[in-house]
Design a protein that fits this description.
By secondary structure, this protein is an all-alpha fold. The chain is globular. Helix 2 runs antiparallel to helix 3. The chain is about 50% helix and about 0% strand. The chain contains seven helices and no strands.
């Protein structure tokens, strides 16, 4: 949610400019680390995503970030690409954890 909020908060900004503040917060103000992330190539797709692509999952097929992802505007990225962007910003997420399902946000907001 933090990645989406940060990228869409200001109009007409590239992903790079939108995420700078969030990345500085996440990485304790380390500007070198932030710039290395913003200039980096996308991460390889996870095993689960690659398997979903093989099975013909349309969401997974649109998940790969382009090489110039930081120069894009948020509206040019697909939801799957935002998942990959979140993996890049918050590394170390364990995909083997219990699946939270599709209604997590609604449950958090409304209960049950």
């Amino acid at each position: 949610r933090r990645v989406l909020t940060a990228t869409f908060q200001q109009r007409r900004k590239t992903v790079r400019n939108s995420l700078k503040k969030l990345l500085l917060d996440v990485h304790g103000g380390d500007k070198e680390k932030v710039n290395s992330i913003l200039d980096s190539d996308p991460l390889p797709l996870s095993k689960e995503t690659l398997q979903a692509i093989e099975n013909g999952d349309a969401f997974a097929m649109a998940a790969e970030l382009p090489k110039n992802w930081s120069k894009k505007r948020p509206e040019e990225l697909s939801p799957g690409q935002f998942v990959e962007l979140t993996r890049l910003i918050f590394p170390g997420g364990d995909s083997s954890e219990k699946s939270l399902g599709r209604k997590v946000w609604r449950k958090m907001k409304h209960g049950n």
